[in-house]
Amino acid sequence: MFINLLDIEKLSSEELNNLYEKNFSNSLYEFFKLGDMVVHYEKALGMNVWDTEGNKYLDFMGGFGALNLGHNHPRIIEAVKNHSSKPNLLQQSINVYNGVLANNISFLTNDKLPVSFFTNSGAETVEEALKIAYMYYGKGKIVYCTNGYHGKTLGAISALGTNSKNKFLHFEHQFIEIPFGDINALIKVAKKHNIAAFLVEPIQGEGGINLPPQGYFEAVREICNESEIVLILDEIQSGLGRCGTMFCYEQLNIVPDILCLSKSLSGGIMPVGSVSVKQEIWDTTYGKLKNAMLPSTTFGGNTLACIAAIETLTVIKEDKLPERAKELGEYALMRLNKLKEKHEIITEVRGKGLFIGIEFGGLKKLHLPMLEEFMMINIISKMLKDHKILCGFAANNPCVIKFEPPLIVTKEEIDCFAEALDKVLDENKNEFVLAVDTLVSTGKNIIKN
């Protein structure tokens, strides 16, 4: 049967679960069931979400970095509502909101990246950055980093820094992988190959919140200048206040040639991405009249997405969220490092601002990657079920819990997270106790389901 919006409210939880499993993703549904994490969330605001039974949860996942302002920020919602009568998709002339949003990004980069155009997602943004680099130099290879993550489209998958990219056909011979933070590796490939671009995150997000060595990006900038390599900085997770400055690159004493933004650019309300480019590169590529229509898309830079993004940047700037992230990030690192001192299963806490990784390096002693992942799911499930806190692990390094709350988080809420994790780890003193508990919990969930 066809189901309209009013019908949804009449369906039972079991019926809704069956629709998800049958028509959307049976494998993902099985994954959530094994972790005992099938919850129906009904509403969300700020740091909180509520399920259909009225339980309130603290969100420390932050939409994988898309919710820097928290859920459903009222100013963003109101801005979109107030402009809902505007033509959203009208390609026969200019869209003035494109120009305003691009101007504001230029202002925030101190006019170092004066031209921007807009896409629908982070992965699309990366694709466009790669296309510009190829157009600029005409040929060459793309260098990326081990454990890097830039999306799941074909070009972005080719720059995925894990072996899981081998499950897809990808441009294996056009992309070269080097270790993150290894300047000598970049020097070697720059000498040996014709390189069009170096695609890199300032801090690896899905790699496990990996920070670069001191001075690394200054050396990267110098090599890219000398070897005529386009430096593409992927700030899709690290940007927009997350690391304690509006853009993370501001702390690295460099300016990239191309900056990729998305996720929280619209406060998590509308899908939007931004490719921001140095003037010379733009003038040589999409800035030419003959190439004017090449970056056009149906939905990219639509009116409502741009309005949400303009208001989001305004809120971030007016509410001084980068400064807030810096201050609260220092507090969070202090609280989480106290947990590390108490629980030997935590081997490192690292990060900048409110972009922090908690590494459970002790799990690697078991040398069983699948068990490691299920053990982390067990921890996350206990945080969810017992303490009503949402959190997740890094896609490319499952032994790292990502601490990535909205930038509106309070010290009291950070304390709640730390106290909850402390209690979960008190129940699982070491990796071997946790492994046994995971096997028992997983077995129970298999029997129950």
From TrEMBL:
Coiled coil: none annotated. It comes from the Bacteria. It comes from Clostridium rhizosphaerae. The keyword Transferase applies. Pfam families: Aminotran_3. The keyword Coiled coil does not apply. This is Aspartate aminotransferase family protein. Belongs to the class-III pyridoxal-phosphate-dependent aminotransferase family. Its cofactor is pyridoxal 5'-phosphate. InterPro entries: Aminotrans_3, Aminotrans_3_PPA_site, Class-III_PLP-dep_AT, PyrdxlP-dep_Trfase, PyrdxlP-dep_Trfase_major, PyrdxlP-dep_Trfase_small. One of its GO terms (molecular function) is transaminase activity. Keywords: Aminotransferase, Pyridoxal phosphate, Transferase. PROSITE patterns: AA_TRANSFER_CLASS_3. The lineage of its organism: Bacteria, Bacillati, Bacillota, Clostridia, Eubacteriales.
